[in-house]
Amino acid sequence: MVRGGSAKPLCGSSILPRASMDKSQLKNDKYRKSRGGYSRLLSLNCTKCDTYLFNYQKDGPGILKRLYLDRISDLRYVNKELVCPKCKEVLGVKGVYKKESRPAIRLFAGSISKKIVKSK
User: Rounded to the nearest 10 degrees, how much is the dihedral formed by the CA atoms of 19, 51, 9, 94?
Assistant: First the structure.
């Protein structure tokens, strides 16, 4: 939801505010525990134009191949694709990760840059 109560798709807005999620709001569930209990909060940006997209909770070690929808702090799109709001670049496609039966976005290689969000 966007301020004012109206929902806007991610690809339709031009300016996105930073999500207000800190380390204390990390989800602690069976998926986090199955990956060793190690989580970090990442700030994700479009690689092409460096536009901020949202914060994401990454559980466990390894590279970022997919984004689970329940780990995204500020979900603003309804489309089947993750599209940068500024440059309109397609960053990933929505689907279901069969191994865990979880809705996720499969990212295209090199489409997203990430930074670890430091706790306050």
Answer: -100
Task: Catalogue all structural domains in the chain, each as residue range(s) with its CATH number.
Answer: 29-115 (2.170.150)
Q: What is the pLDDT of residue 67?
A: 92
Mean pLDDT by 10 residues, the chain (120 residues): 40 40 54 60 93 88 88 73 91 92 92 85
Q: What is the pTM of this model?
A: 0.69
Determine the Cα–Cα distance for residues 3 and 98; give it in Å rounded to an integer: 34
91 phi-psi bin (left φ>0, alpha ψ -120 to 50, beta other): alpha
